[in-house]
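Input sequence (163 aa), recorded before submission:
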Amino acid sequence: MSRKAIVMISIIVLALFGGCMSKEKEGATAAAPDFTLQDISGKQVRLADLKGGVVMLEFWATWCPPCRAEVPAIERLHTQYSGKGLTILAIALDEGGWDGVKDFVADRKISYTVLRGTEDVSSKYKIRLIPSTFLIDKEGNIKKQYMGGGSNEVVEQDIKALL
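Predicted structure, token format:
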């Protein structure tokens, strides 16, 4: 079974049992697994190079309705906080091809960094459903995780606290 099919089944099951509501996980601080992924322009982006700033890491796909719905809120966060030390990395988990992701980014005029996801990175972050969002502090530690979409107000407050 493909990763896309597994993610879709997970989303459906969670929706049936109220799982589409925001679920925030907070607990022991863990170091964010490092990775290097390609962005839309072909540039290599390494998470470890962003240490010293706050990183919002969003796992998503163009075919995922809740992911698509979050794009305007993420764009607003990028516009408001990128100059204050926040970097947003959106890791696309689309299997249909990178050209579709590039078209989606262009159509939506997304200005934050979109990266081409891999099985390895999904595995490192234990992605079981999307959207999944991680807030990483200035030291490179995961401070918050939101599964199935987060409340924009809560995410923004958590970003402010980390900045």
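Checked by second reader. Residues 20 and 128 are 13 Å apart (CA to CA).
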